[in-house]
Amino acid sequence: PGPRNRIPAPRSPNGPVSGGRRAGAPFQYLSVQKTGARQSVGLIQLNRPQALNALCEGLMQELRRALGALEKDPQVGAIVITGSQKAFAAGADIKEMQSKTFQECYSSGFLTGWDKVSLVRKPIIAAVNGYALGGGCELAMMCDIIYAGEKAQFGQPEILLGTIPGAGGTQRLTRAVGKSLAMEMVLTGDRISAAEAKEAGLVSKVFPVEKLLDAAISCAEKIASNSKLVTAMAKESVNAAFETTLAEGTRTEKRLFYATFATDDRKEGMTAFVEKRKANFTDS
User: Fold this and answer.
1) What is the pLDDT of residues 87-104, one digit of tens each?
2) How many CA atoms lie less than 13 Å away from 228 in the CB half-sphere?
3) CA within 20 to 30 Å of 12's CA: 86, 100, 176, 207, which one?
4) Looking at the record, which segments are called Disordered (predicted)?
5) What is the pTM of this model?
6) Quick check: helix, strand or coil at residue 168?
7) Catalytic residue ranges
């Protein structure tokens, strides 16, 4: 890649995101800012338009750096990842992968770093317009909530390239939509629409294209208004349902429920409820 340069601040389809402020050092493949009425939402826009936001290693390195910075920012309570109206991300960078050997992939742990997205403790919303294919679909599924524009398309077309998903596609997709649909998508490479993805449980809500980003930011602001400490516990507990058995998951939930009683925010939240006022959480 050439020298890094500043990317214009992300724009919603209706224009600039109101109240946005740049965060951190400049990026080549991303635009990063804080937005929302209280600057409590970290907004990451994939910005590699000439390649439909294909996920090259440089982009993924920058994404990890951006997520790390937003994770550490005490002002940020939730994160939104989005792309363009045409593509959230059309997949991994095929040109970058084309000449790789098994030995190179295995010895370097190729794609292992992508898991960073799923390890962030703050909630992440994927705001998906256009194509979310292959690695792009996998990236969206690593997020905690997926909002889709009505023209979005989801798919795992790796079979058409003579390979299979390598960043959790067969695993997360199957857990999200069930074996039959996941098997059909993976084995045929066929795409599903936003409406089909909503019906299958892959996305939580579908919006008109021009309203998608604002809706995702609004949801993120609502999440960020809660205790960041307890929100992280809630995210961990839901993930336990996704990743473990029912018995293990309920044990995790109970342990984390008890843990909230050691926090100031649990006491404040319950006191505020009894006193019929808004809670003033301190994330402690």
Assistant:
1) 999 988 888 888 899 999
2) 21
3) 176
4) 1-23
5) 0.89
6) coil
7) 92, 135, 138, 158
